[in-house]
Fold this sequence. Notes:
Shape: elongated
Largest sheet: 8 strands, parallel
Number of helices: 7
Distance between the termini: 26 Å
Radius of gyration: 20 Å
Number of strands: 13
Amino acid sequence: xxxxxHPEPLHVGQTLDLGAAAVRHVxxxxxxxxxxxxxxxxxxxGGECVAEVLQMGRNQVQVQVQALREGGREPQRPVxxxxxxxxxxxxxxxxxxxxxxxxxxIQPLHTERSVLRLQAERAVKKVAHWQAVAVSACEQCxxxxxxxxxxxxxxxxxxxxxxxxxxxxxxxxxxxxxxxxSQPWPAALAQVQPPTRPLCLVLGPEGxxxxxxxxxxxxxxFAPVSLGPRVxxxxxxxxxxxxxxxx
Length: 247
């Protein structure tokens, strides 16, 4: 059954018009009145609903909510990813695959060694594009909660807004590091309790984080962790770390 993102609240018996992007999606699928589809995104608990197509027009698709279903596909531990943006299409790929794995949110960062530099309107457009990538990934993979892609910030500004070291109920903080003595990521994860406690993971772009940046992260309570002796691309490291955290 086709899956369509609809972020507004939904209830059984409701009749609604789909948004422009959803209309295009339904038209491409050649759905007709009487066909059914799945709507998700309008439930705090991560559920979804079955809806029937009532009317099809050139610029309009009207559906009626028929039944609600529990989601049951979301990770028990929210993982928030802050990443020094990789260049070219690699950030698109990272957002797509991180969404498929179940990331809770993504914070794109400018760091000292970032190749990709986004400012003003271009940054806003890129974030909107990445948010659309996340929506499409959720439609494909069956996830019912679309991760939020935050506005682009510098690492320094993000850290200033982050505040003091977290308490027991706040996200546990870690930074992927190549520094000697960094704790293996699986061992660090095993120590984070309860198993539902959120995580905030930071990693650098191509070339990694500068020494001063890593020091600033550690000062804010980010524990240095490692994925092993190999040097991975930033997008590969992000997905490997997420797979371990969400597995």
